[in-house]
Design a protein that fits this description.
Layout: H1 8-21, H2 24-36, E1 79-83, E2 90-94, E3 102-108, E4 116-121, E5 125-127, E6 136-144, E7 159-162, H3 178-191, E8 196-203, E9 209-215, E10 222-228, H4 236-250, E11 256-257, E12 260-261, H5 262-268, E13 269-274, H6 279-287, H7 295-303, H8 352-362, E14 367-374, E15 379-382, H9 390-404, E16 407-410, H10 421-429, E17 433-437, H11 450-457, H12 460-467
Parallel strand pairs: 10-13, 10-14, 14-17, 15-16
Antiparallel strand pairs: 1-2, 2-5, 3-4, 3-6, 6-7, 8-9, 9-13, 11-12, 15-17
Helix pairs in contact: 3-4, 4-11, 9-12
Bound molecules: zinc ion.
């Protein structure tokens, strides 16, 4: 059965090799063992119809006396393809072949070829950066021996990948600002008008818009409420959240979770998301006080008591730690006056940003749970107001613990965090929530952690929706 998987190209190659080298059965044997090692591939494999029996070359009755001894060949690489997270271009990876000095990648736009040698590399991967969106590509990889006494490998099995459409939300942008967010949001809403709605909630003191986005059925009877970027220097989470929104829009029609289509999931459970709660603070953390447009405000920012450099800025542009602006539930604050972090403000909801969050929440009819993205620590805070719903609260937190591999911290009785948004949820809404602290490097989290953070969190919306589905 496995012999049938030999491609016509491979057969031509084998025949040529056999003419040069010696009896065909030796190479046939080799091919079987190559096929045997190809069980781990996840990529599609083309199985062309068995080619017609080729004309058997005439075998000389007596082999020439000068015939060289047969040379062993390298094993064929086992190739896989994926689409790159940054640009949806096909990427090939393959195993290291023992004895190989380099590898050659062949590409065709049709199954039958022609296959062009596209790349020679000592590495075991190849990114097809010039691939065209929507085009299906066929790839084969060969291990090159570089030794006189050993032949190159046969071709790998063909792997196929269609180049994806470019993404809107960049993951290579290392400083995700309000302008990036606003541009991405507008483009996403325009591209997916049936799936995404934006809502204007007001503006900041430095004239940046505060928005929520609804993903899924706007009339869904259940909602999950999501926030990112309460704290300025944690802006990587705004980018992660936006990219997640794009992922769900792109895959809305095709993906499933636990056998339920995304379409069904998000038709029943929709998401109200504030991807950037604190755009003014983020302006300061990314580009310093010069990014504050209002001259008077900029002068004020420069005078605010600061912990470390501007990149370390956590508050909004007024010097209020927004996550602490729910001071009904607060113990004594870290700071009693405006500062780059730790000051909860003169009173609850003194800030435009927290008012916007309240407005967005009031616009939801039935919030089942809340997800807050923060940084850092690779941990998840969770809690409950009364033991009545402790089990429910834990079930929700456990979902995210299992997904990310982060450890959990029960903050139900922790006085330290009182006054923050989570305690507000705990006391006013009495529903499950998680505060996911992404990243292991100190804030602002190194951008090199983006892919890892994104991959750990990507399925969060699907899991949360499934948890409350039906
Ligand atoms: Zn935070």
């Amino acid at each position: 059965m496995k012999m049938k998987k030999i491609t016509s190209m491979m057969l031509v190659f084998l025949m040529a090799a056999s003419l040069y080298m010696g009896p065909t059965d030796v190479y046939g044997q080799e091919t079987v063992s190559v096929a045997d090692v190809q069980t781990q591939t996840e990529a599609e494999v083309v199985q062309p119809e068995t080619p017609a029996e080729p004309d058997t070359p005439a075998v000389p009755e007596e082999p020439p006396v000068t015939e060289e001894p047969e040379k062993p060949a390298l094993k064929a690489p086992v190739a896989k393809t994926t689409l790159r997270l940054e640009d949806a271009k096909p990427k090939l990876t393959w195993n290291k072949v023992k004895g190989a000095s380099k590898y050659q990648v062949y590409v065709a736009e049709q199954k039958k070829g022609p296959y062009y040698r596209k790349w020679t590399t000592v590495k075991t991967n190849y990114s097809h950066t010039k691939a065209r969106a929507g085009q299906k590509y066929y790839y084969k990889v060969k291990a090159v021996s570089g030794k006189e006494t050993v032949n190159d490998s046969p071709m790998s099995k063909i792997v196929i990948r269609t180049c994806g459409q470019p993404y809107i939300v960049s993951i290579t942008d290392t400083k995700y600002t309000y302008n990036d967010f606003k541009t991405d949001m507008d483009r996403l809403v325009k591209k997916y008008p049936d799936l995404l709605k934006k809502r204007y909630l007001g503006k900041t003191v430095d004239d940046r818009g505060l928005y929520s986005m609804t993903f899924g059925n706007p009339k869904a009877k259940k909602q999950i409420f999501v926030t990112a970027g309460f704290h300025a220097r944690e802006y990587i989470n705004c980018q992660v959240t936006m990219r997640m929104i794009e992922y769900y829009c792109r895959n809305y029609q095709t993906e499933t979770y636990n056998g339920v289509s995304y379409e069904k999931l998000f038709n029943q459970v929709s998401f109200c998301i504030l991807p950037m709660v604190n755009p003014d603070g983020i302006a300061i953390s990314t580009y310093g006080p010069s990014a504050i447009k209002d001259k008077k405000l900029r002068a004020k920012v420069k005078k605010i008591d600061r912990n470390g450099s501007y990149t370390n800025w956590k508050a909004n542009a007024r010097g209020v730690d927004l996550n602490g602006n729910y001071i009904n539930y607060a113990g004594p604050p870290d700071k009693t006056t405006f500062a780059s972090e730790g000051y909860p403000g003169p009173k609850s909801y003194s800030e435009k940003e927290t008012k916007a969050v309240r407005k967005a929440m009031a616009g939801c009819s039935n919030i089942k749970a809340v997800i807050n993205y923060h940084s850092m620590g690779n941990c998840i805070y969770w809690g409950y107001h009364s033991k009545k719903y402790k089990a429910k609260a834990w079930a929700f937190a456990k979902l995210f613990r299992d997904m990310t591999g982060y450890y959990t911290i029960d903050e139900s009785y922790s006085p330290m965090a009182r006054g923050d948004f989570e305690h507000y949820i705990m006391h006013e809404y009495r529903i499950p929530y998680v505060c996911i602290e992404n990243g292991k490097s100190r804030t602002p989290v190194k951008h090199s952690e983006f892919k890892s953070i994104y991959n750990k969190n990507k399925l969060g919306f699907a899991k949360a929706a499934y948890h409350y589905y039906k």
